[in-house]
Amino acid sequence: MSTPAHLWLEDENGSPIVGSCLIPLRLGSIELKSFSHGITIPVDQNRGKLTATRVHQPIVIVKEFDKTTPILYRAVCEGRTLKKATIKMYRILESGIESEYFNIILDNVKITTVSPYLAPNGQSNTHVETLELRYEAITWKYTEGNIIYRDTWNEYACA
The CATH number of 5-152 is which of 2.70.40.10, 3.90.700.10, 2.70.98.10, 2.30.110.20? Predict the structure, then answer.
């Protein structure tokens, strides 16, 4: 059974960019087919000491073509900054019910890549596109217990 993730976007004015999801409580979101993200910290290979501050990689998502596709192309072509992007992740409980358990919230988001993809030889039954999202700030939230950490890439983090 898949573990779903959905994306909600707000344009530069804070208005929702409405996706095609019709599931109650996720209405207007964008279903993610895949998601990846990384943060690294440069380290001296010989001494193991940190050599610089952390580096945020873009968030890379894959989604099906939908009514947000032209809006996302406009955002990348015109260099628009989206006010907010929220990724909500769900897990399947033993009862079979999906339960939201983790959120990633991005502030001042730039879509830097929109790349359409059609799998060869009919390996996929739909058209998909890969998006890369850059951001000024990111918040990770584990919903049970409200455990939160926020980072902004342009501020120096101290241990």
Answer: 2.30.110.20
pTM: predicted TM-score of the whole model, two decimal places: 0.90
Number of neighbouring beta carbons within 10 Å of residue 153: 15
CA gap 140, 151 in Å, rounded: 9
The separation between the first and the last C-alpha atoms of the chain, rounded to the nearest angstrom, is 40
Question: Could you tell me which residue, 43 or 154, shows the higher pLDDT?
Answer: 43
Largest CA distance in the chain: 53
Torsion angle, CA of 35/111/108/158, rounded to 10 degrees? 60
Confidence of residue 64 (pLDDT cuts 50, 70, 90): very high
pLDDT in tens, 95-104: 988 999 999 9
How many residues does this entry show for the chain? 159
Q: What is the residue whose two structure tokens read 């279903």? A: 31
Question: Taking a C-beta distance cutoff of 8 angstroms, is the pair 69, 127 a contact?
Answer: no
Distance CA 32, CA 27 (A): 14
Residue type, 102: F
pLDDT value, residue 158: 57
